[in-house]
Each structure stands twice: as structure tokens, then as C-alpha cells.
């Protein structure tokens, strides 16, 4: 058997794998803003950049950010700037997407001058969805960041009645299918698809089971293709096993097997 070709992943994909394998994640990136109320936004950005996924004080910082935003926001323009700042950070730093989605859920019903935070957020997601092909061609990181955040918002944010936003379901299935079809950053795209299915697969299937069957059929076809890399096939096999287990966590030995395999293939 010949030597395996070396897998080259984007740094953001490596960061996601480090988190999965319990390694250290790099510090958050700085977000620039053009807000006319710079001092207020600087304070909000400082709080935003201090958040870390799964840290012991992340919920307290989410609450602090929400309170500061509510006290600082006196116009629709300011509210829009806050939404753009959170959105920009979430799509440019995939390690922040889950925390950003939790923050958006907390602030969803916040309203200024008749405009809800949630409406502005959904409009931004819709805008990026309509230009996703251009994003994929011009800025792969932004494309993957958008899909990651879209899935995290769906998995986290709820309506006032506690329901997930069904309006996001078809766009998510479309994006996940396009990830599987990507030829440019194949392993990065499959990794993104795999991780988002692990976190939102159950909820997606509950909303539109027939589309999940189609997506998994594409995943099986890709997994069985001998020209695909071992990393791609391992990631897809894990998702297929997870689905066969009704999206319940795999047993520790199986999870450890996949972690070791993925670590070896990306070393």
C-alpha cells in the first residue's frame, strides 16, 4: 500500500478538531466596527472577545453583554451595529459560532423602534445564503463560517413558543449538500458537514426526515468512493453510525476510535 497523501486543512478546521480532541484553542480574533457610537461598541466588543466556549463564566458574560447592549442601544442603527458585530465575529471565527448562537437566542426578542434583534439576524443569514456561491469562490473561510453559524442558530435559537425556526431547515439542508459536493476544500467541507450533523442532525431529521434520507444517501455514496481520502471517509462513517444510533452518542470505545483515527490522519 502506497504512502497516504498528506491532508492539508484550513487553520479554522484544525481549531475545531483541537476542540474535539480537547486541545487548546487559539485566542479569539478581534472584530472591527464602524459604529458612530464607538465607545459603547468598544465595551461590547471587549465583552464579546472575552467569551470562551464552555468556560465556567460564559453564561455570566452572555448576560453582561445582553444587559450592556440593552442599556446602550437607543436606535435601530445601534441595534443593527450590535447584530452585525456578533454576526461578523461568528462567521469569521467558527470556534465562536455556538456561543454567538446562545447570545442571539438570549437577545432574540430585544426590540428597538419596532425592530427586533431576531429579524435583523435572520435577514443577515438570508443575505449570505443568497450569495453563498460567491462566498465559496471568494472566501472559503467565510463560507464555512456562515454555514457553521447558520446551523448553530438553528440548533440553539427558539421562537417565543419554544419551537426551532423551520424557515432555516431547507437552507441548512441545501448548504450541507453543497458541502458534500465541494471540490475545492473537500476535507474542510466534509469536516464542517460532519460536525454540524453531529450537533443538529436529530433536530433536522425531526423537521424534514425525507431530506435527511437524501443527504445521508449522498454521504454513503461519497464514503464508498475509493478516490476520497481516508479522513473524508472516516468523518462520514462516523455520522452514518451516529444516525444508525438514532443520533444518540456513540459508546466511549467507538468515539475514542474515531478520535484516534482522525488525529492520526491529520497529524
From TrEMBL:
GO terms for molecular function: RNA binding; translation activator activity. GO terms for biological process: nuclear-transcribed mRNA catabolic process, nonsense-mediated decay; regulation of translational initiation. One of its GO terms (cellular component) is cytosol. Its main location: cytoplasm. Keywords: Cytoplasm, Nonsense-mediated mRNA decay, Translation regulation. Residues 45-246 form the MIF4G domain. It is found in: Cytoplasm, Perinuclear region. InterPro entries: ARM-type_fold, MIF4G-like_typ-3, mRNA_TranslReg/HistoneTransl. Pfam families: MIF4G (PF02854). Coiled coil: none annotated. The keyword Cytoplasm applies. Specifically required for the pioneer round of mRNA translation mediated by the cap-binding complex (CBC), that takes place during or right after mRNA export via the nuclear pore complex (NPC). Acts via its interaction with the NCBP1/CBP80 component of the CBC complex and recruits the 40S small subunit of the ribosome via eIF3. In contrast, it is not involved in steady state translation, that takes place when the CBC complex is replaced by cytoplasmic cap-binding protein eIF4E. This is CBP80/20-dependent translation initiation factor.
Amino acid at each position: 500500500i502506497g504512502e497516504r497523501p498528506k491532508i492539508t486543512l484550513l487553520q479554522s478546521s484544525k481549531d475545531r478538531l483541537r476542540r474535539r480532541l480537547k486541545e487548546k484553542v487559539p485566542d479569539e480574533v478581534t472584530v472591527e466596527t464602524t459604529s458612530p457610537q464607538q465607545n459603547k461598541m468598544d465595551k461590547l466588543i471587549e465583552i464579546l472577545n472575552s467569551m470562551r466556549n464552555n468556560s465556567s463564566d460564559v453564561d455570566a458574560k452572555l448576560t453582561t453583554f445582553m444587559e450592556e447592549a440593552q442599556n446602550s442601544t437607543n436606535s435601530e442603527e445601534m441595534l443593527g451595529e450590535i447584530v452585525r458585530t456578533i454576526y461578523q465575529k461568528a462567521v469569521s471565527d467558527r470556534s465562536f459560532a455556538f456561543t454567538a448562537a446562545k447570545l442571539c437566542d438570549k437577545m432574540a426578542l430585544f426590540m428597538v423602534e419596532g425592530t427586533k434583534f431576531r429579524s435583523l439576524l435572520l435577514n443577515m443569514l438570508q443575505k449570505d445564503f443568497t450569495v453563498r456561491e460567491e462566498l465559496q469562490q471568494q472566501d472559503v473561510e467565510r463560507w464555512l463560517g456562515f454555514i457553521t453559524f447558520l446551523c448553530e442558530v438553528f440548533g440553539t435559537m427558539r421562537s417565543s413558543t419554544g419551537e426551532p425556526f423551520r424557515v432555516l431547515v431547507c437552507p441548512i439542508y441545501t448548504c450541507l449538500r453543497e458541502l458534500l459536493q465541494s471540490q475545492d476544500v473537500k476535507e474542510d467541507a466534509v469536516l464542517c458537514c460532519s460536525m454540524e450533523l453531529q450537533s443538529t442532525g436529530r433536530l433536522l431529521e425531526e423537521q424534514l426526515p425525507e431530506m435527511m434520507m437524501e443527504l445521508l444517501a449522498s454521504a454513503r455514496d461519497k464514503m464508498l468512493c475509493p478516490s476520497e481520502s481516508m479522513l473524508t471517509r472516516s468523518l462520514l462513517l462516523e455520522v452514518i453510525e451516529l444516525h444508525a444510533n438514532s443520533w444518540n452518542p456513540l459508546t466511549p470505545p467507538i468515539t475514542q476510535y474515531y478520535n484516534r483515527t482522525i488525529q492520526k490522519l491529520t497529524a
